Amino acid sequence: MFDIKLLIDDEDRDATGGATFVRRDPVTGADSTRAAAATVADARAAADAAAAAFPAWAALGPGERR
């Protein structure tokens, strides 16, 4: 099974509290991925990290942003 973490501030993280959800293959019913189930605190951390990174990103030219 493939585990997917949150990517916040260029760092892979588990969800606060460790909650996850599982996606199942609709044909076989087998578990295919397990992903971190973000909380409000995780969403706030992601938004704060994005806001902090934005000035440097905005100063880049279009070619560098890719």
Descriptors for this entry?
alpha+beta; three-stranded mixed sheet; 2 helices; 35% helix
Question: What can you see in these coordinates?
Answer:
The protein is an alpha+beta fold and 66 residues long. The protein has 2 helices and 5 strands. It has a 3-stranded mixed β-sheet, with no helix packed on it. It has a two-stranded antiparallel sheet with strand order 2-3. Strand 2 (6-8) and strand 3 (11-13) form a beta hairpin.
Task: Tell me, briefly, the overall form.
Answer: elongated
Please give the count of helices.
2
Number of strands: 5
Beta-strand share of residues? 25-35%
Structural class: alpha+beta
Rg, Cα atoms, Å? 16 Å
Strands of the widest sheet, in order across it, are 1-5-4
Mean of residue pLDDT values: 95
- The first-to-last residue Cα distance is 31 Å
What oligomeric state best describes the polypeptide chains here? single chain
Give the SSE string.
EEEEEHH
> Residue ranges: pLDDT <50 for 5 or more in a row?
none
Q: Please give the largest β-sheet.
A: 3 strands, mixed
Helical coverage, percent range: 25-40%
